[in-house]
Backbone:
């Protein structure tokens, strides 16, 4: 009987393991491998072992790109959290028959290609777009505002695109929150604000952390938003990696940047998980 159970267990584990090895482990190992090689004269790869690609990452030029990308990712994460948490809390409190509709409205943008939605924002924000046309028509402004191809436009595009990634994990945590904790806080005389900051927010911290990770990490690689809405004036890590692979054809350096950012992201994620875990324990108990 034990042998049969072990056989059934391995029949599920082996296919998943093979899938993970082929489509995740092998590509990452390949990227790590070529990151220690050198670019060929004609854009190929010279199989010469070197640490030069990782040394190039430390140059001030690329450090500015990294810091700019991290700042945009952090600001995007903060704003999606500021707007996403109240939205998720409101959705969790409406009657159940309307919650499904609210969740569908959050998910609807995923049904449309993100590039199409980005082009829609470009049409709205251009100097001859809908927003400027309305403002000029009603004499609110004398000349069109420059909203597109700016740092703010890139942030807006990031926040709009990644907003659902923040809302859904937080909503899931709030919905699973047991009401007995809130009732106990009220019985002990805690007000609404104190109940929120000492009970609700700490207990929903796993959803907040999941949302922050789901927003922060993709915002480092969404190069098409900075290309389209920033007019290539805002260089992010995703743009830099894309340029190395497709424009400069410097695959080893592009691979080195990718590995460097994977390591940085893992470190930041590990630190945030540990810090949030400690704060959650202190906040609840």
Residues:
């Amino acid at each position: 009987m034990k042998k049969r159970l072990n056989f059934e267990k391995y029949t599920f584990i082996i296919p998943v393991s093979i899938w993970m090895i082929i489509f995740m482990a092998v590509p990452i190992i390949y990227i790590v491998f070529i990151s220690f090689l050198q670019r060929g004269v004609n854009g190929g790869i010279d199989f010469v072992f070197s640490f030069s690609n990782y040394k190039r990452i430390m140059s001030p030029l690329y450090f500015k790109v990294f810091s700019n990308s991290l700042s945009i990712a952090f600001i995007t994460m903060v704003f999606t959290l500021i707007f996403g948490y109240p939205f998720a809390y409101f959705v969790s409190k409406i009657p159940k028959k309307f919650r499904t509709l609210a969740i569908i409205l959050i998910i609807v943008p995923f049904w449309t290609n993100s590039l199409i939605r980005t082009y829609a924002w470009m049409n709205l924000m251009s100097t001859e777009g809908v927003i400027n046309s309305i403002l000029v028509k009603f004499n609110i402004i004398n000349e069109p505002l420059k909203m597109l191809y700016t740092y703010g436009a890139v942030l807006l595009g990031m926040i709009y695109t990644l907003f659902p990634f923040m809302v859904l994990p937080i909503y899931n945590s709030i919905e699973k929150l047991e009401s007995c904790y809130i009732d106990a806080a009220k019985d002990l005389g805690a007000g609404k604000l104190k109940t929120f900051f000492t009970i609700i927010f700490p207990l929903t911290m796993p959803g907040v952390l999941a949302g922050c990770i789901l927003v922060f990490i993709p915002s480092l690689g969404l190069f098409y938003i900075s290309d389209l809405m920033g007019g290539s004036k805002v260089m992010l890590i995703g743009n830099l990696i894309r340029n190395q692979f497709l424009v400069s054809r410097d695959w080893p350096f592009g691979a080195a940047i990718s590995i460097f950012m994977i390591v940085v992201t893992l470190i930041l994620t590990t630190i945030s998980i540990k810090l949030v875990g400690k704060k959650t324990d202190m906040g609840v108990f």
In short: The domain at 61-284 is CATH 1.10.3720.10 (MetI-like fold). The radius of gyration is 24 Å. The chain is about 75% helix and 0% strand.
